[in-house]
Amino acid sequence: MRLSRSARRRLGAAAALTLTACLTVACSSSDPGSGSADAASGPYTIWDPYPQFDDGSAWVKLLNTCGAEAGVTVKRTGYDTTDLTNKALLAAQQDNSPDVLIVDNPVVSTLAEAGALTTTEETKLDTAGIEPNLLAAGQLGGKTYGVPIGANTLALYYNKAVLTKAGVDPAGLKDWAALTAALAKVKQSGGKGITFSAIGTEEGSFQFLPWFWGSGAQLTRLDSPEAVSALTLWTDWLKQGYAPNSVLNNTQTTSWQEFATGDYAFGENGTWQLANAKKTGFDYGIIAIPSRAGGTAPAPTGGEFVTAPVRSDKARYAVSQRLITCLTSADNALTTDTTLSYVAATAAVQRKQVAATPELAVWVEAVKAAKGRTSDDLGTRYPKISQPLWTAFQAALSGSQSPPDALKAAQTTAAAATR
Amino acid sequence: MAHDTTIRTGAAATVPVRAGTAPARRARRTRQVAAWAFLAPVVAYLLAFYAYPLYRNLDLSLRHYTVRSFVQGDAPFSGADNYRTVFGDPSFGPALLHTVVFTGVSLVFQFALGLALAVFFAQSFRLSATLRALFLVPWLLPLIVSASTWSWMLNSDSGIVNAALGVVGVDPVNWLTSPQWSLVSVIIANIWIGVPFNLVVLYSGLQAIPGEIYEAAALDGSTGWSTFWRVTFPLLRPVSAITLLLGLVYTLKVFDIIWIMTRGGPTDSSTTLATWSYRLSFGSLLPEFGPGAAVGNLLIVMALVCGLVYIRIQHRQAT
């Protein structure tokens, strides 16, 4: 076939224009199920921060079962935790939020502040059985924005062999003085003391809070004498060589790796390391983090909330409510929390967990004493306090400022940011 | 040359078309449409993937964003407020200084080492190709791997570097956790990663220098150092300039190495503008998109200024 010159040119132009169109608008057929599907049909979308679970896992099977019980199909996507906040904010901006969003508890207040989450009142979710200290992390201005699926928190793992060699009885470690004395004994006996994570991110603040709260300090006043005593405790441990200098750069994972070498007497870490603890090959035990004056210190709660993001199609809330109720019901919560190595959010399920696994008792105690970071109605003021706080302990631990000076600077910054 | 012929045919084709007659006008219009149609893909691509993100970033930096207004899309215009916030922040001075030091020191060492290795490998010897290939490894490794490896090696307590120092009787250094050393550590890692790029580009630049020039220089009695300074280095100047410019643009925005190794800490001691911008936008539970975008724009301006300086230098060399 011979085409005239201009015809060929026109064809070329058409091809080029089609290519342009494909570049600007994705050159594939769009998904018919997304966007404007009506309430009864169309898959219900669920986003969670558990990318480690694939379609064959108990978690995803539970999602499908709950979907089937509610008479809908569910479409689940697992995101990395840190990624999920931004994804959820962007989705809210573009009005294509998922029907059910499972999100880390301190993020709930951020998303609620953004107006991206419905209240439990609006979606008629029952939160009566939930422990109040866990629910508080999802409450802002007297309203509740989700249901906790379970909780985790921090405690001290200890290495039995190292403590025995140093002649320390872990049962007697009820306050800071006893703990520091134990660390001194461990060092004398040739062992290494304690490892934790004091990295300059939210993870570091999470690890510092049990000591901070355990001193009696409040997040609203970072430079109180109590706060200074908590930071001095950490700083002195580093100075005395009871804790390694690497804590400044440790994430909770690298801190765990240090503890797993078997050289350290103590490691401050979370419920989620239980499975790994069994793999270390040495005898370990767990004690609650002691407070300054004695007793269990309030540790911050970790763990996710199941929430229902705001959708333009309000008719979908009824099914979302059934999905969330199913996911957080006693039986399913037990399965989920066992899979995630979490402590349940209701006392009834906690009792079942301890009956099945007695070693969880110490964790249940720790969770009972725990406190949400965004609790006390701090909400979105918490991140603005947390950042100066981690800057302060980094400055004190690296020796560039004394604990009182570092905390004074932190309080000035936090006060200016939260005014 | 093939290049010339195409130009000539192109010019020849335009000559017969003369304005006035109707078919000629139609032909010209079709050709214009065709020209625009062929231009359209690249224009659309540039608009969608360069112009729009840049515009969005500028827009982000000029509005007062909270999480609420980000979602509702009603952030009020706040003019240069975010820039004022950034300039007034106590982190700004150190971050700028660290960016300049990080970029400057990295470039000098990367270029010097890359050039030395390029000259070394320019003389073929046995296994030189294999060795040269091995030098490329840092460039081929994903940054997360190399940065994590550096982070392990420089660990205060269990790192191999401190272990080696211990053998020769030097006290351990807190490479990543002391304010004095953290910036030095990330610069060392960045130099290691950047040397292969300089090596490859400068090596190919060396290949382009004709052997006759060296022969002529040798006949004139030039040896070793003087050949390098009077022949190799001046002839490499165009290649060196582009290598340095690319290196600069690349180093200014280095984020991953620093973030993985130190998170910009302890207390800002290794924070650069790039890591600061990330920390503002994504590093805490409450994103501050406005100031984050403002810092990002400052980086773009810095890279742009350096690019303009390069063009000016090149222009002066050409004339």
Automatic annotation (TrEMBL), chain A:
GO terms for biological process: maltodextrin transmembrane transport; maltose transport. Residues 1-26 form the signal peptide. It comes from the Bacteria. Coiled coil: none annotated. InterPro entries: SBP. Keywords: Signal, Transport. GO terms for molecular function: maltose binding. SUPFAM superfamilies: Periplasmic binding protein-like II (SSF53850). Residues 409-419 have a biased composition (Low complexity). Residues 400-419 are annotated as: Disordered. GO terms for cellular component: ATP-binding cassette (ABC) transporter complex, substrate-binding subunit-containing. Belongs to the bacterial solute-binding protein 1 family. This is ABC transporter substrate-binding protein. It comes from Actinoplanes nipponensis.
TrEMBL record, chain B:
One of its GO terms (biological process) is transmembrane transport. One of its GO terms (cellular component) is plasma membrane. The keyword Hydrolase does not apply. Gene3D superfamilies: MetI-like. Its main location: membrane. SUPFAM superfamilies: MetI-like. The chain crosses the membrane at residues 33-52, 95-121, 133-153, 181-203, 239-261, 289-311. It is found in: Cell membrane. Pfam families: BPD_transp_1 (PF00528). It is a multi-pass membrane protein. Keywords: Cell membrane, Membrane, Transmembrane, Transmembrane helix, Transport. Belongs to the binding-protein-dependent transport system permease family. This is Sugar ABC transporter permease. It comes from Actinoplanes nipponensis. The lineage of its organism: Bacteria, Bacillati, Actinomycetota, Actinomycetes, Micromonosporales.
